[in-house]
Queue: 3 jobs
Job 1
Amino acid sequence: MEQDSRDAACPGNDASDVVVVNLDLGNGDTDNGPAGKGYGGADINRALFKNEEEKKDEDGSDDDSGTYYYNTEASGTGLQRREPPSGGSSSLPDTFQTSHLLFYERFKAYQDYMLGDCKPSEVKDFTADYLEKTVEPCDWLALWSTDIFDVLVEVRDVEVKDLKARVRLVLPLQCDTRGVELHEEAMTSLLEATQHKVPLQELQVVYEESGDIDQTALALEHVRFFYKHIWREWDEEEEDDDFDYFVRCVEPRIRLYYDMLEDRVPAGLVAEYQSLLEKCSKCFQQFSALRSGLSADSDSELDNVSMVEGLKLCDQLESFKRKLRIIENPLLRYVLAYKGNTRQQCVQSRGPRASGAKVVHVVTASCSTVQLQSLLSARLIPLCSSEDTEIQFHREPVSAVDSCYQGDLVIVLPGMYSVSSSIFIPDSITIEGFGFPDEVVIEKKSKGDSFVESTGADVRLSNIKFIQHDAIEGILCVRQGTLNMENCVLQCETTGVIVRTSARLTMNMCDLYGSKGAGVEIYPGSVCSLVGNGIHHCKDGILIKDFADQMDAMPSITMENNVIHNNEGYGVILVKPNSGEEPSIPVGRSEEHPDAHIQEEKQGGSLDHHLISTSFSTPPVSTTSSSSPSLPLLAGSAKNSSDGDAAASTGRKWQFSRQLSRNVEMSSQAVEDLKDHQIFVSFQGNQFKRNGMGDFGTFCY
């Protein structure tokens, strides 16, 4: 009787009751992979239903987009089957392959269907409403998947408010276990203990070719992904609940997930983010347990002690959450990044050889007689005058550097050297090209955190051209110690030179260009000397990071006779905490951009209200130096920024309000203060030309 009433309440699977159209993102590009492999936007799009009005709107889009419009006469699933692991002998049926959705597919599902403009406190209600509209209420098969077993069940009812489904075993029992043995009686007892209810996130929908169950499979995947990678247990406890949860939290977290998935975030930053998540979760659990044990009307000494402890935990929790927001936000991740290096160095310093001998490493694939004679007369004979000097030959630079001990010399003969791994320099060695930089070229084509990493106490580079491809963290990173670089060419593709805290860089007569981030990033507590360099065609010329923590010492910078030109953003940009000393300009109050406040709501991963940039505008000039203090410069906030390919597209969407010409005097004074800032040991003879947003800028957070 109960079964009959349940079946009567269950709607049929008549396709005529559902209207399904595609999600057109307006770019007309639906070619996400080879035909017949996986599933692209068109396949997923036709599995998401919309109402008739949306269908009419979508039908007005470009007919040449190549998107297949799903209709009630079309049959068959638009999703792919998840094949069992190779060599597996599972007797369980196949399930839908839904775990490899593209970024924009998840983005549109959460934005348009699941979450919309809900607040954090409304997430559960919106999710329940979404599931009620998309998930078949009964009579479909699924695998109940846990870390221990996979078992075939039949869904009899879906309780969307609790995110659970009432299920029953499919007999005879079909089950795969991992490390344990489970029989029908054990599984029955387990289900009885849970009142036959299992979490929706643990259900994998069994594959059907009819297409009737596609919506259910996709909806469960979106919920599963959301609660695993997006939702935080402390989100709904935000004091300020009046904000768009999708804009503030969901979009930046999805972007960060795909940036990490596609190796666009340094390994050290990924590790730090995961560590912060664990610490924040642990702190929140401790705080919640302590809070639940407090009595509202008790004045006992024990409760007073617990209250003090709770305040400390609350401060820690807010600190962790703020650090997480910085990493999740594409713009802040670019300008602030992370200060430490949690990644363990795989190459340790060897120190000097036990024998005290020095080795000259010659790198060449082949050389002519003339080159060899020139090398002998110019370098080898003077260096090898002592009997304890040895000469070794290598075909490529990485093996030469890996063979070095403290005090060794690497001479790279002219040629094009392609390397597939990063170059780690842990010892005090000298690497020099035997010729002009354009003749001695080292190119890296494979992915990695950085191209060249230096941690030696006294490392010297000269006369070499480095060409970077796909390095995440920089073409050259000075993590610690001292690096002296002279007459080198740095052709960047992603980011430029990074000088970490406590490291020292001396860069003379070098040419750096092409960085999608800053040409040179200078961290707190570092020492950087830039003399006679050309830094051009980068996102920003030089990015100086001045953090708010008391433990951070200010960087010490010398800039003399550099030419910084044709950068997309600023010539020099300073990142610093907003101390309240500068006049602030409320977001959205600019007369030049009266609608600027709308941008914050439209962009995912937008800045929190307490992370605001202030700006001042004056007409930019083509050439400036510290010897001409009367020339007006431009100081402003960072308008665009990028962190690899993903942050480039996101960062360009950021806009901050500008002050009009009435602030010229105030701006000039602000720039003079920046040039006279104590971080600059010396600032003279520098030229700034045709930088897109001006010569000097400040970003206050």
Job 2
Amino acid sequence: MVARKFVVRHEDSSFDVDYNTEDGLEVLRFQIFSLTLVPPEEQKIVAEDDNRLVSDESDLASLSERLRLVSVGEDSVENSDAEMLKSDEELARMLQAEEDAIMFQQFVAARDNGGFEGRIRPYVSQVLMYEDPVRQDAARKTVPKDELEEKALVSLAKEGNFEPSKEERDYAFLLQLLFWFKKSFRWVNEPPCDFCGNKTIGQGMGNPLTSELAYGANRVEIYRCTMCPTTTRFPRYNDPLKLVETKKGRCGEWANCFTLYCRTFGYDSRLIMDFTDHVWTECYSHSLKRWIHLDPCEGVYDKPMLYEKGWNKKLNYVIAISKDGVCDVTKRYTKKWHEVLSRRTLTTESSLQDGLRTLTRERRSSLMFESLSKLELRDRNEQEELERNLHSADDASVSLPGRQSGDREWRIMRSEFGSDENSSVSSSSCPVRKCIDDHVTNIYDSFQPILTQFVEDGLPVARTNEVLEMIKQVLVDLKNAPYKTRKARLTLDSDNSSSFPEQFLPALGDLLLALSLKSERDTNGKSVTISVDGKLTKTAIALPVALDALRELVADLSKYQNLNKDSLSFPLVKQNRVCSGSVLASGEELPSGIATAAFDGIQESKWEEPNGAKGCWIVYKTLYNQMHQLIAYELMSANDAPERDPKDWILEGSNDGGSTWCVLDKQTSQVFEERFQRKSYKITTPGFQANLFRFRFLSVRDVNSTSRLQLGSIDLHRSHQ
């Protein structure tokens, strides 16, 4: 550990930063962010004495004390040797390798004889099935459209976007369609026995039946049961209409069927054929103005380097096929074009492009001039993008997994296993993320008047829980109702124990407000109708939080023999929760285990740090740099994997931009006995005002069995101000 004092110059200002080198570069970036408002991901920090870029490899202990901050977009210093993407010598080698590969292609051109084009042409007929109204209607009927629309709006709201454009909504819906499909479709290694459901063993290929040929199953795999004499057939259907029904297959069936779903909902879609034996989908995003990679087998989107970097694939040809034409998109999926080019030996590059242009012209021959012009403009923009992508630097902070679909032995046999069996998409360079969680604080606060009313009326704990269960049931009914027309009824009766006590109705006001709900007494006066107040997304994002909080509250109250005014304190009452700040973490899982998931109030979500088992951190910066005195905090274990629970940690606060830190609490040997278990802690160093709070997690429950740390939730509670 070395204490340093840096002077950081930015534009016309200078800032003093006291810094502990043990904390790493990310914390230094966050300190600079708190002073300059330049987000960490947009910072370039340069040592002024030698103009060298400060990176994760830099020795912060010996670095010059005078630094210069250059935000992305400003004119920067000249690139140092470390920043150069390619040396002249390396570039020369790459150019020579490309030239050699092109020369070798000349020797194979004569034996092509249009074979490459003939290999692609059947797929053109395949993608035209996606335009069939009958097939689209069959697919549409299987999709819970309202549910996916709601999830799409919630995903945008969690990013702070409560009024998205149509293009943003469409893109968010597309991702929810991908996640739904991943859960709905079933991967087949060996099909289970048709008779007893036990494991089967492959026996080779069989002759297709007429009923199988009707849906394009020219290949049929035969399997024998290991427990009974039954033979099971596995037809490899090519007609997506049949796949909508069977919902099973391998990558060919998955991509074939998913692309139909994409076209069904109006997305410009392409079937992507990888000649090294994989298939996936691309859709055009009007919000991003580019084609997006979507792999339904893996449930991964917009990660085109998944195959070369994660699976260690040796790509050669990646061809996009749609109703509007055929395109070579190999350059989207590689950073090693000179190596890929050496493996492209089926035909020459010129013959390849000629064949693809021929197929594209055929598909566009009947288009009107305006439509044709738009497609040609999109084609030109894509080619420019592919060239830029080829020469852009790879994001080394993003870790991509090996193949996850298919059994282990099959993946290893195909050399697609990757380097880590449990790997997933993750990032060691996280952006600062905004917490959209004021509704969580409002919901927690709204229980205070309800509990106070219970105490004032002297309700027994058993009756208290009965009333809370009635409230919970109303919220369950609302959550299960269509999100656009949510409505539920609460029956009132002061004397009937099975009805909601009318005198408690006013105490519900704050909870309904926190959920963006309204109540209206029915004409008979014996019931109340509760419905959305027009803010559909706010209700959708808040309802799961309220339900989780109510379940916890009922469980907590069950531990009390009676309820009195002294009971209405922390941790039963969780008032003054800090919210709406921003967070930065040492690492996170993408897309579901991001840092803000620890603050969203939902039990099923979690922050996951892929390399945090032996040490990691998360920093919380308050809204508008408001100073708060923490009095307590709570941590909740996540949904699974108890070995990843935090065991030892330190909570610190800072009021000078992170230059110095005050220890607020320290815990060791903590054990979460259950999943979704919330533990509450009082601050051991009270009275300290801070606007930055940092958890340093030192160890997980079992460092020998995992590299990861995960947390279901973090809640910070301040003193009343």
Job 3
Amino acid sequence: MAFQKAVKGTILVGGGALATVLGLSQFTHYRRKQVNLAYVEAAECVSEPVNREPPSREAQIMSLQNTSEFDILVIGGGATGSGCALDAVTRGYTGLKTALVERDDFSSGTSSRSTKLIHGGVRYLQKAIMKLDIEQYRMVKEALHERANLLEIAPHLSAPLPIMLPIYKWWQLPYYWVGIKLYDLVAGSNCLKSSYVLSKSRALEHFPMLQKDKLVGAIVYYDGQHNDARMNLAIALTAARYGAATANYMEVVSLLKKTDPQTGTERVSGARCKDVLTGQEFDVRAKCVINATGPFTDSVRKMDNKDAAAICQPSAGVHIVMPGYYSPESMGLLDPATSDGRVIFFLPWQKMTIAGTTDTPTDITNHPIPSEEDINFILNEVRNYLSCDVEVRRGDVLAAWSGIRPLVTDPKSADTQSISRNHVVDVSESGLITIAGGKWTTYRSMAEDTINAAIKTHNLKAGPSRTVGLFLQGGKDWSPTLYIRLVQDYGLESEVAQHLATTYGDKAFEVAKMASVTGKRWPVVGVRLVSEFPYIEAEVKYGIKEYACTAVDMISRRTRLAFLNVQAAEEALPRIVELMGRELNWDDYKKEEELETAKKFLYYEMGYKSRSEQLTDRSEISLMPSDIDRYKKRFHKFDEDQKGFITIVDVQRVLESINIQMDENTLHEILNEVDLNKNGQVELNEFLQLMSAIQKGRVSGSRLAILMKTAEENLDRRVTIPVDRSCGGL
């Protein structure tokens, strides 16, 4: 009864606010519909893509070199830069002649290291209402429109996701209910599904691992979720199909300038580019140059004008990935007020659980590293919301990464110290156009604003933007049942088929055609790169067609292995390098270089270093005396000779005695994980350090610990029968 009264009371609490926002929301929605008529009109007269498939990287570089002058040159291959290229090349009947260059790989920076949400921003709406901030309201409204569009144009890469907001105090129920209902209301016709209230018992049914003490109930609302790196790549590939000359690993070393004959002033007229893979340099000329480099915005601005004031204020956001059992398969969680006032999301993603993010000032770097402090902060916040029955262990962090969010100040604003809540389009005196700030969800509208500014500033001839409703690569002929055809037509495992369908969309058939025969009765084709993930070898070959040039490209952005499990990614690396080497004609030296570079990437940027430091030769042994005795007995079942250490030979002997077969290379890998001083053997002290770290939750899933426990249990079950009772002997 009290629960129902609280819900009913919210109608009175929020009535005035609802009415106010309703009027503003409906007016804005009306204006949006009028603008959309122009979009539809423009879209009807635009031709199909120039290329059925994106041209090869070599062909794209030839286009960059041989084109006398482009209309638009975009610097930066993240979501915003790729969005700018797609917007420009699809304008009007023929589009603008467009080029895009990226120093690293497409989506190698912030765009692949997000929270994976497509959202308007509940917290921004809260601030907009509490502070009567019309700018934040417009940003939320715009983001909600863009959310709906992105879910429509890339249905294979995105989907609505219900997110639970648990309530632990009665007074919070009406407060948050009003806020979430306003979020639905502002979305208008773009509302994915209506939010709803759950009782305590229903909340625990949906999210059984939730902390139940003092739980009042929960509110569930809907936002979108996507595969961010693949989404970014789809935008870039679509731009390439429409005729944009796009090239990754193409660094801008300087800007070109020429004197305007009418004004006598210097104008930016292109860029000097360097192929990072070959070292070749050449000029790319363009009427307009767009700086869409995210955190590196100021470095390009200073190429134009060395005295340009810095406008980027970088902030690091760390995320961690944990096993899928930490969250329901189709329900996320929002912590709206952490211990230090931040917001933490706890979301299912790719059958794992992603948690984040932090928000701390940082230096700009090409290789951001997640700190142990930030990882532990997220873990502590997760512990606050999960049941005490669920032990949140440091060892369950399978991957961790840091992304640099490029917060910006508006150089045209009177208050240059104030961070802009929205994106900023700036035009320098020499005509360089900079797009900065904003968020992943609004990449398309940011690109539209940028190209509009380019057309106006440089007197380019082009029609209106037509990217609303324009399908991205793989989206047009995708359907939720497409994976069934992959299973039936090619003999793929159902899990693999679903993965291919939700990664490549209608292009999944091309990947399936390249899949290797397994030699088994089932599946017929589709050799996996690593057993516990649905990635197959054919994706490596297809990834090269998608401009993958390095092993890092493959494990982090063509597949998402590095973001899901660093150990699994490391396990798959040798085969990935072998397959890429075969396709790209790498010699042995190049293969070894790629392998080491990828391992370094996993170690520093994807949290492997932080994970490995949970067990070192300096780790303390904090065990009860009874536990020490128990683990010593287990150890001595392998160390029969009382040497004080065990080797591969000792482990093989015990395994053979209980009829378990394991190849020597695998055993070597297993022992190497615990061999802290790297002398080829596991000493008693190292084993006790391992068991202590496991008890504290710093290490989980140790293959040696599980193997030794299993072997001990098997040995203990073998009871020796005395001769006088065995019916034997004479």
